[in-house]
DNA sequence: TTGATACATAACTATATAGTTATGTATAAT
DNA sequence: ATTATACATAACTATATAGTTATGTATCAA
């Protein structure tokens, strides 16, 4: 089996850094393609291709205005990523930091086998 | 150019759903490989391969105990993902929800071209 | 009509995969 | 020594890419 398509979901789509750059640009509001080409320093076809992927996963939407295509962000599509990774936030933030992880670890170790000792390195 | 390697960074590593499953398991504490094989219903070599990728991006660490390899989470490696996606959180949460996006959009439209009207659908 | 502009898409290539089935390498048990 | 257990790795295959250079298709301008 090969890797899942970039258009499978938001996780796969934003794994590509240039696509994250595009989304970062769109945070400030909708933009035509040429605008992004200038800002990002990529070729026009490449930007179009990345936009296609982002559109297929719902991260951007298009509006036609004359001969321009105005792209805008649809951040909702990124929510699954945020929801998932937020589950790990407690491991580094808050007043506990790494302690949380250590506690979970101890809890787990007690539960299973448990080799007894452990506080040798006091 | 092909797609970036899965071991390039955390973004690429967690694009694969089975690797996210593995990390989700490790939230409860360190585990030997065989344990995960049972829980996840994947083949042992596949789990080992996924663990290798996660290790290369720093998302997990290993400890040898006899013939077992105990893997544990290193959530710090996921922080760049959290940091990035958190920049989009305001678009769906808080007391504003979608309004924030609309305001950014208006601000931007005023700045550039500006087709004038727009409040026709009031 | 002729030409320019804005964008999408096709054709092409090298490359890294996800998953499988062997097989290797320690450690442990008999 | 022999066998079993726990895990890593090799070899293999189909597939989807990221980026390039054409080329197509609307729209606007003269």
Description:
2 copies of one chain form a homodimer. With 122 residues, chain A is of the alpha+beta class. In chain A, 46% of the residues lie in helices and 11% in strands. Chain A has helices at 10-13, 17-26, 33-40, 44-56, 79-86, 99-111, and strands at residues 31-32, 60-65, 68-73. A 3-stranded antiparallel β-sheet of chain A has the order 1-3-2. In chain A, a hairpin with a 2-residue loop joins strand 2 (60-65) and strand 3 (68-73). The longest helix of chain A has 13 residues, at 44-56. At the A-B interface, helix 2, helix 5 and helix 6 of A face helix 2, helix 5 and helix 6 of B. Chain A binds a DNA duplex (30 and 30 nucleotides) through residues 1-6, 16, 18, 32-34, 42-52, 66-69.
- Percent of residues in beta strands of chain A: 5-15%
3D shape of chain A: elongated
Q: In which range does the helix fraction of chain A lie? A: 40-55%
- Summarize the biggest pleated sheet of chain A: 3 strands, antiparallel
Global Rg of chain A: 22 Å
Which residues of chain A form runs of ≥5 with pLDDT under 50?
111-122
- Classification by helices and strands of chain A: alpha+beta
Quaternary structure state of the chains depicted? homodimer
Average predicted confidence as pLDDT of chain A: 85
């Amino acid at each position: 089996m090969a890797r899942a398509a970039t258009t499978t979901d938001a996780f796969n789509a934003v794994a590509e850094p240039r696509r994250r750059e595009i989304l970062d640009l769109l945070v400030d509001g909708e933009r035509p393609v040429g605008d992004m080409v200038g800002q990002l320093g990529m070729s026009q076809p490449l930007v179009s291709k990345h936009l296609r992927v982002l559109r297929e996963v719902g991260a951007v939407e298009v509006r036609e205005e004359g001969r321009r295509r105005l792209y805008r962000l649809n951040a909702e599509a990124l929510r699954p990523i945020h929801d998932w990774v937020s589950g790990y936030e407690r491991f580094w933030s808050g007043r506990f930091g790494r302690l949380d992880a250590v506690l979970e670890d101890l809890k787990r170790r007690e539960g299973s086998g448990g080799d007894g000792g452990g506080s040798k390195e006091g």
